[in-house]
Amino acid sequence: MVDCPSMLAIADPIHLVLVRCDPSGDSNLLSSHYIEWRHVLASGRVNTSLELMGIGTENQVPVGILDIQLELIPKLPQILAEDVISAQIALEKSKQAERERLFLVYAKQWWREYLQIRPSHSQRLIKIFAQDENGSSRPTCSYIRALRAGRLLDTPRQAARFVSLINYAKVPTLGGGERAELWTSMHTFLCLNKGDSEDHAVLLCGLLLGFGLDAYVCVGTKSKSAAHAWVVTIATDGLVTFWESLSGHRYIHRSVNPDDPPDLKQYKPIYPYRTVGCVFNNKCLYANSQPTDAIEVCDFNFHNESKWKAMSPDAISSVYGAAPGWACVTPLCASGVDTHLASNSLEQELRSLVTDHRKDVGLTTTWNDQLSYLLTPALAAYETERCTGVTSGTEEFQDAIRRAVPDGHTFKGYPIQFVHRNARRAFSTCLRSPVCEEIINCRGDHVSLAIRVRVFTYPEAACATWIMFACKYKSVL
């Protein structure tokens, strides 16, 4: 058992995240609070009240009071004096404040040197600091930690799929003006199950680092000059791969030489990115100092000092090397959703909604259970393709459908994927598709409908919900 002096040296706080969940399934972040738990070492039990503050621009507005009780189990054989605990905490805060001050001095000097290279660099997206949900300005490198997913994720591509299934949501703003920017800590992001592109990119970068890849978060712009963040990995052979954390797509980057003659056939990029200002991970930060920040001509050789200005790794590690309040690593949790129960339940709800919808328009409904079952391999193939990029199993599915549909009959199918399990929301979205609406409202001779739902769970609350509507009817010429 760990003794009191050893526990006193554990500086990681308890991170409390307060999230409001609406009946529709939407969630909103109300408060994020770090609890200093070590006072319990003085008595074994502490009762206290926490004033929980708001998020972002509302971080000075209280959202409520929470009464908590902290207790160590089993009880400690010895306790520490309260003044010893307070002195240790004060010493840690003093040292951390000094490290942050020194890093700020260094960052200012580094930024002046970067602007001396080319005055136009002031217009590039260089993120040295970012504000978190508590209103604290933190070095961007401190948001990333190499994250090992244990046995919950098996491959980097599966990790990319997991991150893409977390909902995308921009930071809400009050009034007009420029886009609000708020980076959430990894724990808050996972609890909320939604976030901006920066949150997705930071999590994906941490997972790829955990899988042993040389990964960095890219900060730049995409189409229409909108600020955006994504991930880049550099292979040992120099291959540059972009990972879009919002979709899970991967793109190979081949830089274009601007000095090549115009009649030379050039590689046309298919990725949506336009410029890149800087890249960073948990150990380093590089600012793009090439003549242009256009990504199609960008060389991602970070060791070339004439093209990338590096920030000192020692300076970066020093600012959070002693584990300040926001430096704890959050392990991933396994999903608590029963995939079979969730799939069956959602499928039955959608069947009822389809039956009621057809009844309202004067149509009867006949369900074909066998045809519904035959749709299962297609949904599995769709998810496998999203994870691996490889299509498989479609030949067997197509052959089974041909055998199930008699001559003179027509088969129509409509697959769609969601990141939630709300039947009414999914059905409403499907009806907005002309193809799906035509299937649901199918009229004719010997009409039978089919539906199959398959829920694929991932760590935390992420899930991919695949739904396929289908119909079979006799063609009338």
Fold and architecture overview:
It is a single chain. Helices cover 31% and strands 25% of the residues. The protein has 477 residues and is an alpha+beta fold. Strands 12-11-10-9-13-14-15 form a seven-stranded antiparallel beta sheet, with helices on one face. It has a three-stranded antiparallel beta sheet with strand order 16-18-17, with helices on both faces. It is globular, with a radius of gyration of 27 Å. The N and C termini lie far apart (81 Å).
Spans of at least 5 consecutive residues whose pLDDT stays below 50 are: 322-327
- Please give the share of residues in helix: 25-40%
Please, what is the average pLDDT? 90
Rounded to an integer, what's the Rg over CA atoms? 27 Å
Distance between the termini: 81 Å
Largest sheet: 7 strands, antiparallel
Number of strands: 18
Q: Quickly give the structural class.
A: alpha+beta
Please write the string of helix (H) and strand (E) elements: HEEEEHEEHEHEHEEEEEEEHHHHHEHHEE
- What would you call the shape? globular
- Across the major sheet, the strand order is 12-11-10-9-13-14-15
Number of helices: 12
Strand content range: 25-35%
